[in-house]
Design a protein that fits this description.
alpha+beta; Jelly Rolls; 8 helices; 25% strand; globular
Length: 226
């Protein structure tokens, strides 16, 4: 993605004209993070809004047993940090770079002013938050009711929707998260992830090629496990 026009691909900014986008560019700053860098810590005060220019991050939370629970993987054009800005509370989760990542950062006061000046941003933000809430509800229901195979399929479908590339019915994930991260998303073990992925491959549902995963018939896979 061209770093000079990345804002037009961010869901909450797509309806803005060039002048408005230029203004947003002028009030923000860019920052690079190395792989495994902690960008936000759970319970930190919320002071900024973040847009991913390139790279990937994981949004996670530590349980009482110190086990990590991963809520989502975010990639180019995704954003995070908005909840703490809106309600004034501390961060609800940690955000960690899973590869080298470049972010665009808008400070809280500037972001809140944007919402006041551009009602279309506020409306788009509400739509995105509602979309995320629906997805979270569906995932919670799926992970609580399904067996191990269904849980792993749910995570694969989530990743397909979040960071997958679709072409002629085939969805490809270029860089599949580590199996331990997949386990933390599915609420299962790394061994279960490995076993289930190979089961899917034997059934002809997916192809594995190093860190790449292809869902050979996305709609069929979705019907089977959604």
């Amino acid at each position: 993605m061209d770093s000079s026009n990345f804002l037009q691909y961010v869901p909450i900014f797509t309806d803005l004209d060039d002048n408005a986008l230029d203004k947003i560019l002028s009030i923000g700053s860019k920052k690079r993070f190395e792989k495994e860098s902690v960008i936000l810590l759970e319970e930190d005060a919320g002071s900024a809004f973040f847009v991913i220019i390139k790279g990937k991050v994981k949004v996670s939370k530590s349980g009482t047993d110190e086990k990590e629970v991963i809520f989502s993987i975010l990639a180019e054009s995704d954003f995070f940090g908005e909840m703490a800005l809106l309600d004034g509370q501390n961060r609800s989760a940690s955000v960690i770079a899973t590869e080298e990542t470049e972010l665009f950062i808008i400070q809280r006061t500037d972001f809140l002013n944007l919402l006041k000046e551009h009602s279309e941003i506020s409306i788009a933000l509400l739509q995105e938050l509602t979309k995320r809430l629906r997805a979270a509800d569906a995932k919670i229901k799926s992970l609580s009711l399904k067996d191990a195979e269904g849980k792993v399929a749910t995570v694969i479908l989530q990743l397909a929707d979040d960071i997958g590339k679709i072409k002629q019915g085939i969805v490809e994930l270029d860089k599949l998260p580590l199996q331990q991260d997949l386990a933390n998303m599915a609420g299962t073990s790394r061994e279960t992830i490995s076993r289930t992925l190979h089961t899917f491959a034997k059934k002809g549902l997916i192809e594995l090629d190093g860190s790449k995963l292809r869902i050979l018939n996305y709609e069929s896979f979705k019907e089977m496990y959604l």
